[in-house]
Amino acid sequence: MTTNSLTDVPGFRVGHAAVAGPGALSGSTVVLAPPGGAVAAVEVRGGGPGTRETDALDPKNVVERIDAVVLTGGSAYGLDAASGVMAWLEEQGRGVRVGPEPYQVVPVVPAACLFDLGRGGDWRARPDASVGRAAAVAAGAAGLGVAEGNVGAGAGAVVGGVKGGVGSASVRLDSGATVAALAVVNAVGSPIDPHTGVLYGEYGAGPLRIPDPRTHAAAQEHIARSRERMGLPPLNTTLAVVATDALLTRPQAQKLAGTSHDGLARAIRPVHLMHDGDSVFALASGAHTNRNARGPLSPEELNDVLAAGADVVARAIVRGVRAAESIEGPGGTFPSYRDLYGS
Fold first, then answer.
1. Which of 85, 90, 212, 214 is surrounded by the most beta carbons within 10 Å?
2. Which runs of E-coded beta strand occur in the chain?
3. Distance of alpha carbon 9 from the chain centroid
4. What phi, psi does 86 have (nearest 5°)?
5. Cα separations (Å) of 93 from 107, 127, 275, 286?
6. What is the C-alpha separation between 65 and 109, in angstroms, rounded?
7. Beta strands of 84-157 (E only): which ranges?
8. Residue 82's CB: how many other CB atoms inside 10 A?
């Protein structure tokens, strides 16, 4: 059974946790790799990134595999969520082995944050280690499928004046390998074509559902008011994890992280601005070899994985925008695409 989500890649699981309390509108999302970890890489293209442990993923450095990635709200404050994930992984005996005993591990937990401070009304309501730990526990207990919309790191996400959120998508290639993505959509740019109301990421993806012009005109006025209320400068960031069971080297994973950014460019315009911190992680378990079981992918098969990375990121962004729900509270009013344009 496929779920059209990141968990279609065997062994990967996703968990979400929200910041509790009045005035809170933020959270964290953990992508947990299969036992034994995954080859990992990252590509950061936004001008205002907030990250942790991303240098460890450089192919010239020593860490070969990681066990989890954290996507979190709370801007740089929210990166503390990774500490809770580290603690949970240590308890599971998962991490870089640094001694002979099972507990002698150092989990390497790359993380990236998005800006959502104050969107629930309380500037100080942001993820900490306890929220990260809760998301890790949820990922460890999760089954197939990924909750989407206003969950985890997507709780306070906003994109181009409309409510953003978490989305996921997957595809199985002719080689038998699976490529999937999870995106947290929170960009300065917009996912909506201002001329038609169509989501950019839906162009070329099948029959278009073009909104009624009167609906579109009313929606654009509403979005303009939402942007005005948010004020300037807009501070955002879209985050994504692309996972595959293909057998990739670390440089190949780095290439996948880079080409997957093309999915952001298809689905959000403009993208990679100075007030975005757009970051894409690539994770490869290597559980699936090529069709002839020769080991690493052929160049043609690798090209298919690279192309699929961009495709599933674009689809995940569309799903995140469509799954998001409107928010109205002390931190602002953020209308959803669904409420503005219909389902």
1. 85
2. 13-18, 27-32, 39-44, 51-52, 68-72, 96-97, 105-106, 111-113, 158-159, 162-163, 166-172, 178-184, 239-246, 279-288, 327-329, 332-334
3. 15
4. -60, -45
5. 9, 24, 38, 21
6. 10
7. 96-97, 105-106, 111-113
8. 28
Give the C-alpha separation, 200 to 213, whole Å. Answer: 17
- Could you please report the per-residue DSSP string of 176-195? S-EEEEEEE---SSBSB-TT
For the chain, 343 residues long, give each residue's pLDDT as a single digit of tens: 799 999 999 999 999 999 999 999 999 999 999 999 999 999 999 999 999 999 999 999 999 999 999 999 999 999 999 999 999 999 999 999 999 998 999 999 999 999 999 999 999 999 999 999 999 999 999 999 999 999 999 999 999 999 999 999 999 999 899 999 999 999 999 999 999 999 999 998 878 889 999 999 999 998 888 887 776 567 789 999 999 999 999 999 999 999 999 999 999 999 999 999 999 999 999 998 655 555 678 889 999 999 999 999 999 999 999 999 999 988 889 999 999 998 7
Q: Are 74 and 113 in contact (CB under 8 A)?
A: yes
**pTM, rounded to two decimals:** 0.95
* Count of beta carbons in the 10 Å neighbourhood of residue 306: 20
Euclidean distance between CA atoms 321 and 343, whole angstroms: 11
CA distance 140 to 32: 7
Of 127, 53, 35, 40, nearest to 89 by C-alpha is 35
